[in-house]
Recover the amino acids of this structure.
């Protein structure tokens, strides 16, 4: 029976799945967990603890959960607490509203596929308040996390049109969920490059170049815009957004606006503008837009009702006069202020190093510095079969315990090298990281020059 | 611009998605929600409330959540309660264990894609205890609900092999998630029929007939078995399972064993046997099997950590000597006893009616009675462009407010008609439903005879 073919093997597996690559879950991260185990087992290392700057995983990095939201969730899960004097009335009111709209009064029940009506209405209200233009709650569809929504929307395009493969424009650098999903669904990928010299700006001329190239091999049907940027941390200007919408209109492209970091804007002269806001300026626009509802941003899969309860609480926070108002504002601002502080620190520190440049982190939770690797380092990397930036990241990991992600996982201009770091570590640890990083980098450049 | 093609329309949408049909979410259910609204608005109907027997949605039907599990979840969400004297020590111990294994000690963090190590180990332990044979925790992968897992596994097969479309064997009647997923992924569907005359039994001769047919148009690669059955409620015997495994081995098929209702077995001479248990009897078997981890069964999307915490609590329930043991057993048994009572009632009642036969509900949460529709009813249905069983279900809905699902949504032998009803309504309401159903059915048969 040795020659019998396995019913599922690398030879007969869906080839799209084989091609999948997800930088955020690759060998570097695997090695980091192995190192963590080795440290626990007492293996000697040049460091005593791992410093994780690889994942946009706020709570793992010590960000404190917002009390109000957790209170609402605790009560919907355990309704006996609705009578507990420990909880403030505004949290109770939110919890009761959610429970009242669940079938059987239990968060263990199913909801409509599009989400609970009260949640969708609340999200629409939130969007109206944010944008100052009407939002129809029936166009709000709650998904099990942003990844789920992105997959579901892209799935709609997964077919040939007029004998051509459908294509989707994505930024480079990008969040690798997009490239992975396009690969999985057999959709053509049209790269457009963000301009590092202009603060990772999005130039319409580059969009035009990219779509012209794309049309040679596929039928472009949609464009992904990530704002604020991941991994690049830029915030698009109003003018830029309007240009992109015009371009999409002219090219008849569906816009997927990934706006999960809309609350995370740090620079005083930057402001978040939603794509939806300007939609109405172009009456008759046929490219319908879609908005990630993953404002909560902490679960890859939002659970059917618990996640919706979370979304409801976030879009319906305590108002002035309600008992939790002050504490909610205080907790939220503390988080944003500390992110802002680290956003400033990160660019400043990296720009002070030799052979690194770094655009400011205007928003989101990341910086994407460029490293100017000496030719010798590139040579050694290639001799090991590694991308040079991945080689750099491995060296950093083994020598300092700092875990970042090599730029090649997100895409970059050929011949340039980068890495993504988060700004999520608590400030003291973040300072330590930047110090150790500086030391490592100086040594690395010296060794390979 | 009127002639401009929309960038996403029915003309250029992924055709697999257009074909998707999901009986559980179709026009009948939509109409039932409309009726519910009309009742609220005071529209006169022959009934005053909807009776939902269409969805396997336990909590919506008034099933009471298990206190122990809710306590664990409340504490992992709101860890301040770990010090609350209201909660028993065993629930606290579970909550602490889960929180200790979360990064940053928060359920708001991400976990490994396969799930938390402690959860996977606990599930493996649960399976070992259940089956009496070893289970490797590294083979346990936690998914965001059974639907997610089913989609992910079937996705692996979505490709041509040796120039042939891959095919998957599914039972008829089946849970429509399977047919929908196969359609979505462009996989060929090979129907095998369950034998209604043998209590919805699974006959290997029928499997052989089906695969022989299937091989004419595709390359059969996997077989789905639902045990206990949905919508059919049968429980497979040990002998039957062994035969299926042998068949799968001979045909080199991957077995997808959907065992989400393993706890729901009502007949004294039936016993649940997992497919995994007998796997080891056939050393060298190449068809690897996969097991739905959706033992909790209450969320379509299990959230990343909250759902895992739920799974952990269910597979690690209070043991003898622990403070919650008695109350947990009492609550669990009360639920199972009341389901058992209704499982007996449902077949007995339907079998007492004219022109209906109904196999016993040995397990799961459903019955799938056969209705012998008069030719005149079939004629009227067809003149309205409806499947006869859907016509029957619509009539029932409009006349009595009872919502069931027509058999054509699950598949049935051509020329036979069925419907699926759940046994989830609380016992008093369930009795009322059966009474009203009897009245309606008698009238219906009389009218169309």
């Amino acid at each position: 029976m040795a020659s019998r073919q396995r019913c599922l093997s690398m030879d007969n597996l869906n080839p799209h799945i084989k091609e999948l690559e997800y930088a955020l879950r690759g060998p570097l991260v695997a090695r980091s967990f192995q190192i963590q185990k080795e440290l626990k087992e007492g293996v000697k290392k040049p460091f005593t603890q791992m410093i994780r700057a690889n994942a946009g995983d706020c709570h793992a990095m010590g960000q404190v959960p917002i009390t109000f939201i957790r209170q609402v969730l605790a009560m919907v899960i355990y309704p006996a607490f609705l009578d507990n004097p420990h909880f403030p009335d505004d949290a109770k009111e939110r919890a009761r509203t959610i429970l009242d709209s669940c079938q059987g009064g239990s968060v263990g029940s199913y909801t409509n596929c599009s989400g609970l009506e009260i949640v969708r209405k609340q999200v629409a209200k939130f969007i109206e308040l944010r944008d100052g233009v009407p939002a129809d709650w029936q166009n709000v569809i709650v998904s099990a996390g942003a990844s789920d929504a992105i997959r579901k929307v892209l799935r709609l395009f997964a077919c040939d049109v007029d004998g051509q493969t459908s294509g989707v424009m994505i930024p480079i650098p990008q969040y690798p969920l997009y490239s992975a999903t396009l690969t999985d669904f057999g959709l053509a990928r049209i790269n457009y490059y963000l301009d590092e010299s202009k603060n990772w700006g999005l130039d319409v001329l580059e969009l035009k170049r990219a779509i012209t190239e794309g049309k040679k091999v596929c039928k472009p049907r949609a464009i992904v815009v990530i704002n604020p940027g991941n991994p690049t941390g830029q915030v698009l200007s109003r003018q830029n957004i309007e240009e992109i919408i015009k371009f999409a209109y002219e090219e008849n492209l569906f816009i997927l606006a990934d706006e999960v970091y809309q609350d995370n804007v740090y620079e005083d002269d930057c402001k978040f503008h939603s794509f939806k806001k300007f939609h109405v300026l172009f009456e008759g626009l046929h490219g319908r837009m879609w908005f990630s509802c993953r404002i909560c941003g902490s679960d890859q899969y939002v659970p059917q009702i618990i996640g919706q309860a979370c979304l409801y609480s976030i879009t319906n926070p305590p108002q002035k006069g309600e008992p939790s108002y002050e504490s909610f504002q205080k907790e939220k601002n503390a988080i944003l202020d500390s992110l802002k502080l680290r956003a400033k620190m990160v660019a400043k520190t990296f720009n002070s190093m030799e052979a690194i440049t770094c655009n400011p982190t205007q928003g989101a939770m990341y910086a994407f510095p460029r490293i100017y690797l000496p030719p010798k380092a590139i040579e050694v990397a290639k001799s090991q079969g590694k991308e040079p930036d991945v080689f750099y990241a491995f060296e950093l990991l083994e020598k300092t315990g700092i875990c970042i992600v090599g730029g090649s996982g997100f895409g970059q201009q050929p011949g340039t090298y980068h890495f993504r770091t988060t700004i999520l570590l608590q400030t003291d640890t973040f300072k330590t990281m930047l110090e150790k990083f500086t030391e490592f980098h100086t040594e690395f450049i010296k060794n390979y020059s």
Observations:
- Residues 75 and 355 of chain B are 53 Å apart (CA to CA).
- The longest strand of chain B covers residues 164-172.
- Chain B is about 40% helix and 10% strand.
- The two ends of chain B are 56 Å apart (CA to CA).
